[in-house]
Each structure stands twice: as C-alpha cells, then as structure tokens.
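Propose amino acids for all 108 sites.
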C-alpha cells in the first residue's frame, strides 16, 4: 500500500531543502531532541523501555533535566557513537546531575 503521508512529507522536505537551506537539519535536530527527551524521561523515571508515563506525570525538575540531556545529545552532539544509545543517555544524566552546570535541577 502506498503511504501518501510519507510521500507528502518527502516533498515538503525537498521544498524546504530548496527554499530554506538548513531548515531540514534544524527540523531533524528538533525531532531528535523530542525523542531523546522522551527516552531521558524514561531513564530518569527508571522505566526505560516501558514508556508508561506521560510527560505530565514527571516533575518539573525531571522534565528540565531530560530537556538538558536531549539538548546536549541532539544539538551539541554530546554522545559517544561507539557506545550504546542508553549508555550515552546514562552518561549525560550522570554528568549533568553530578556537576554544577545547572544548580536549579534538584531531583531530591
């Protein structure tokens, strides 16, 4: 079966690439950040792989921490491509929570 939504999305990407160079990369990073944030929340909530909770079920501090992890992963490329995905999430979590980068994040 032909997936018309995919074809439409591909045409939109082609138009963006032609009319606004850089927009495709920006969209890719934004979408990637959303997925990483979702996974970081699962990791923070210790339910990795289940994704049972909605974002509204997490505290503001947990959401802020997941956003910081996702920002570094998606926009700054702060991950090691030789390590598994979840190990990179764990490493960013540990680095952020054990440093003084953002003292406003308090998970206790």
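Proposal:
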């Amino acid at each position: 079966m032909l997936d018309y939504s995919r074809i439409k999305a591909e045409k939109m990407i082609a138009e963006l690439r032609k009319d606004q160079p850089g927009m495709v990369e920006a969209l890719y990073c934004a979408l990637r950040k959303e997925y990483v944030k979702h996974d970081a929340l699962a990791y923070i909530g210790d339910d990795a792989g289940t994704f049972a909770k909605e974002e509204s079920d997490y505290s503001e501090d947990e959401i802020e921490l997941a956003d910081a992890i996702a920002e570094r992963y998606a926009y700054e490329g702060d991950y090691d491509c030789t390590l598994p995905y979840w190990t990179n999430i764990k490493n960013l979590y540990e680095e952020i929570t054990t440093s003084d980068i953002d003292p406003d994040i308090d998970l206790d």
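The first helix runs from residue 4 to 19. The two ends are 51 Å apart (CA to CA).
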